TrEMBL record:
It catalyses: S-sulfanyl-L-cysteinyl-[protein] + uridine(34) in tRNA + AH2 + ATP = 2-thiouridine(34) in tRNA + L-cysteinyl-[protein] + A + AMP + diphosphate + H(+). The gene is mnmA. Residues 147-149 are annotated as: Interaction with tRNA. This is tRNA-specific 2-thiouridylase MnmA. Signal peptide: none annotated. GO terms for molecular function: tRNA-uridine 2-sulfurtransferase activity.
Length: 365
């Protein structure tokens, strides 16, 4: 099998490429340049796809004895990931750029080019498992629950899964991957994992957004619509946030308040008690299935709303062009723009972007 190994410059993708070579595949390494700022440097565990990462990927490929290339996907990344991130915040939603990158870049743009060049599959260092079932290929959780990345892969379609290769999915722990990298003489064996948003390496999301969408003062309201404070820009707030509210009016019960809603049209932020974050229902019109679609329009499942959140038992209904999910116990702090991934046991059924939420605690009249 001809395999294109996406090599980020980290230990996971390097070991994944090495295992593809060991399996007897014809492997070519490729690093994706996602920024045209040539001087971009890595800051510890922040950021990825930097100059250092490209050099680390090249050294790993040289060690494995495979061809290596750098492909410029910066324009596509800017349009499909960064621009989407900005527009979602402008609309008062909370986006997940890692989901968009997997959907639009690694398993769309990259896979499309790989297939055009005659490759059979794209190999990555994601921790997830592929199972060839009776009805086609299925995406399942990794054996290492702590490193499982099936959530951020929930956007993959049946066609994409058919040309995907995850050599690390059955590895019991990240420590074993690092030990293997040491044994193979890979210099990235102890390289820190990347965290935060890769295109905001300093971690200052609020400042980064302010430079691009502007910051305009607005009002902070309670659930009754009373003004209890002001803010410097609604884009800086996300549902569930507690810190940085700077409220001028204390709560009657003395308890802290949390962001419940961001209204970009009126540039207002609504806050309330923690219990008001409980969400009884979520739904979304932008959904895809990871392989075979559910056999019925109503089914029980587990739903995960964040990369490291616990899955919640729920009931899902497909109808009127949307997927609607009702959890057995309310979700906490769900924001429009987040991704809900549906599971049947360890298998990923599919995902949808949350467009609408229904609070389990109605606002006072």
């Amino acid at each position: 099998m001809r395999v294109l190994a996406a090599m980020s410059g980290g230990v996971d993708s390097a070991v994944a490429a090495a295992r593809a070579v060991d399996a007897g595949h014809e492997v070519v390494g490729v690093h994706l340049a996602l920024s045209r700022a040539g001087g971009t440097l890595r800051a510890g565990s922040r950021g990825c796809c930097t100059v250092e990462d490209a050099l680390d990927a090249r050294r790993a490929a040289d060690r494995l004895g495979i061809p290596f290339y750098v492909w410029d996907f910066s324009e596509r990344f800017r349009d499909d990931v960064v621009a989407d991130f900005i527009s979602e915040y402008q609309a008062g939603r909370t986006p997940n750029p890692c989901m968009r990158c997997n959907e639009k870049i690694k398993f769309a743009a990259l896979l499309e080019r790989a297939l055009e060049l005659g490759f059979d599959a794209v190999c990555t260092g994601h921790y997830a498992t592929l199972v060839d079932g009776e009805h086609g290929r299925e995406l399942h959780r990794a054996s290492d629950a702590a490193k499982d990345q099936s959530y951020v892969l929930g956007v993959l379609t049946a066609e994409q899964l058919a040309h995907t290769y995850f050599p690390l999915g059955s590895t019991p722990s990240k420590a074993l991957v690092r030990a293997e990298a040491e044994e193979r003489g890979l210099t990235v064996a102890q390289k820190p994992d990347s965290h935060d948003i890769c295109f905001i390496p300093d971690g200052d999301t609020r400042g980064w957004l302010a430079e691009r969408v502007g910051a305009e003062k607005g009002e902070i309201l309670d659930r009754n619509g009373e003004v209890i404070g002001t803010h410097e820009g609604a884009h800086a707030f996300t549902v569930g946030q507690r810190r940085g509210l700077q409220l001028g009016v204390p709560a009657s019960d003395g308890k802290p308040r949390f962001v419940l809603e961001v209204r970009p049209v009126s540039n207002t932020v609504v806050v309330g008690p923690k219990e008001a974050l409980a969400t009884a229902e979520i739904s979304g019109e932008r959904f895809t299935w990871a392989g075979r679609a559910p056999e019925t329009d109503a089914f029980d499942c587990h739903v995960q709303i964040r990369a490291h959140a616990d899955p919640v038992p729920a009931h899902a209904v497909i109808g009127d062009g949307a997927v609607t999910v009702t959890p057995q116990e309310p979700f906490e702090g769900v924001a429009p723009g987040q991704t809900a991934v549906l599971y049947d046991g360890t298998r990923v059924l599919g995902q949808f972007t949350i467009d609408r939420t229904v609070s389990a605690v109605p606002a006072p009249v």
